[in-house]
């Protein structure tokens, strides 16, 4: 597989911006695709957006799901490592994607001595927090129980939940991602792994997450921003605007620090 084809297979970039001051690498929520974030590339004019496309969905629908976080991180690094050395990069992930963002940052720092200029983590407790460790597992629920849970957390259109054919395609992807995140383990950092700023976002009406525990991953500034809505608060247009304004502000000023 050539570097070009590997990149196109794993990364969705709607708007190539060679002149961008920084790149934003975005990881999907469990079961999610890359389109939601890829759209951000049009809005973030000074930032090139790389939306990660995982196996089992979109143009990779026929590929086998990944079984572990390590597989996800290894694949992303295999296609992105040369690119990440070119210019500053930041990470954004929601829920499952927040865990994947952290796992990627952890490996990049430990193995390749590369560090993001900012971590944007949304809708998730830190992986080593008690709240996260004690959370109930979902990947082993029956399809019926699973649909009930999805209905409760919201964010999926009811007409999709009611469509058995769509659910037959969607549930295996979602369960595979949840299985990956439920089996992902890491210890609370004794000393900060990173030095970049960390920004956490969350929905005020979502179930509580231990956002404060993310503070331990970095010696940089730590901020939390709560926005109205449930687990998929970031799909709301006004919330999305706030998130993108925040990303723009941080990454454009980070570029000045980087120079």
UniProtKB/TrEMBL annotation:
For the Thioesterase domain, which residue ranges apply? 23-248
Alphabetical UniProt keywords: Fatty acid biosynthesis, Fatty acid metabolism, Hydrolase, Lipid biosynthesis, Lipid metabolism
Q: Drop me one GO molecular function for this one.
A: fatty acyl-[ACP] hydrolase activity
Its Gene Ontology biological processes? medium-chain fatty acid biosynthetic process
Recorded E.C. number(s)? 3.1.2.14
Reactions catalysed, as given in the entry:
(9Z)-octadecenoyl-[ACP] + H2O = (9Z)-octadecenoate + holo-[ACP] + H(+)
SUPFAM superfamilies assigned to the protein according to its UniProt record, in alphabetical order: alpha/beta-Hydrolases (SSF53474)
Indicate the family of this protein.
Answer: Belongs to the thioesterase family.
Q: Know the name of this protein?
A: S-acyl fatty acid synthase thioesterase, medium chain
Native organism taxonomy? Eukaryota, Metazoa, Chordata, Craniata, Vertebrata
């Amino acid at each position: 597989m050539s570097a070009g084809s590997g990149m196109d297979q794993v990364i969705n970039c709607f708007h190539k911006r060679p002149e961008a001051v920084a790149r934003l690498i975005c990881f999907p929520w469990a079961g999610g695709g890359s389109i939601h974030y890829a759209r951000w590339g049009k809005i973030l004019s000074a930032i090139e957006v790389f939306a990660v496309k995982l196996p089992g969905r979109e143009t990779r629908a026929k590929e086998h799901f990944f079984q572990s976080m390590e597989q996800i991180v290894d694949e992303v690094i295999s296609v992105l490592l040369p690119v990440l050395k070119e210019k500053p990069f930041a990470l954004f992930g929601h829920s499952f994607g927040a865990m994947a963002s952290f796992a990627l940052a952890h490996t990049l720092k430990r193995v390749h001595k590369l560090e993001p200029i900012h971590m944007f983590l949304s809708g998730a407790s830190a992986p080593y927090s008690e709240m996260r460790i004690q959370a109930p597992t979902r990947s082993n629920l029956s399809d019926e129980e699973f649909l009930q849970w999805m209905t409760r957390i919201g964010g999926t259109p009811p007409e999709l939940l009611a469509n058995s054919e769509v659910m037959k395609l969607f549930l295996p992807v979602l369960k595979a991602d949840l299985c990956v995140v439920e089996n992902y383990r890491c210890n609370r950092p004794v000393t900060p792994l990173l030095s970049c700023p960390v920004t956490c976002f969350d929905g005020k009406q979502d179930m509580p997450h231990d956002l404060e525990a993310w503070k331990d991953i970095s010696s940089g500034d730590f901020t939390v921003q709560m926005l109205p809505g449930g687990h998929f608060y970031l799909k709301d247009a006004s919330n999305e605007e706030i998130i993108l304004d925040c990303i723009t502000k941080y990454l454009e000023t980070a570029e000045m620090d980087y120079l």
